[in-house]
Amino acid sequence: MTLALVLIVWQIVGPHISPIFFTYPTKIAVAFYDLTVSGDLPHYLAQSLEVMVYGLVIAVSVGISLAVLMARVRWLDWALDLAGKAESLVLIHRRDGFRAAPASVAKMKELCETLGMQFLVGQINGFEVSNGRMTEVRVTSLDGLTRRVPLDALLVFFGLSPKLGPIADWGLDLERKQLVVDTEKFETNVPGIFAVGDINLYPGKKKLILSGFHEAALAAFGATKYVFPERKIHLQYTTTSPKLHKILGVESPVFD
To answer: What was the pLDDT predicted at 205?
Structure first.
């Protein structure tokens, strides 16, 4: 049911976003069907795989000096996977502490001791570009010393940040740097602006992924009043609604 809910919200929101950045399930299904019928699907899949394989072969064979700017857990997984594949690997983190599995942290420290990778504590505050390519970054450590780190590629992993940026100037009700919302449709005090996930606040708020899906579903229903003001939105279920079955591209079950 959770997957079906995500697909429904995706289908509702997708058509209103530029296809350059985002598409939606029915359009993907139609394209897949057309390419399958025309026989072009293997050709386009081969093109995509070819680009990916060439990139991997060049990276491994030439040896990329790689810098990784990280913030939470996934950066460490990437770093451990890339160790030994890149000519050199430099990890850059804002502090010396890690929110990751102890075994992964131990493996990272072991690789640093054996010169399998390097680790820098600090913040990137600048970079250099030559012939349209980034060639190095400048990392300022906690002691104020700035180091120049040459690179061929930079992978950026930013974690969660409580900074609202320009949103703080939108006239929205704030409490503890979070947006106050109602629990009916998760709308802020400004009509038409909704907030779901870690950015919002309401009585009993729990920062769980499951709660985020619940908030997004109610916010989507609330937003439809602005997107389709003249249309009545009826609650439907993926188990019984032929309309949703058609959108999802599945056959409606027949009950004896």
So the answer is: 94
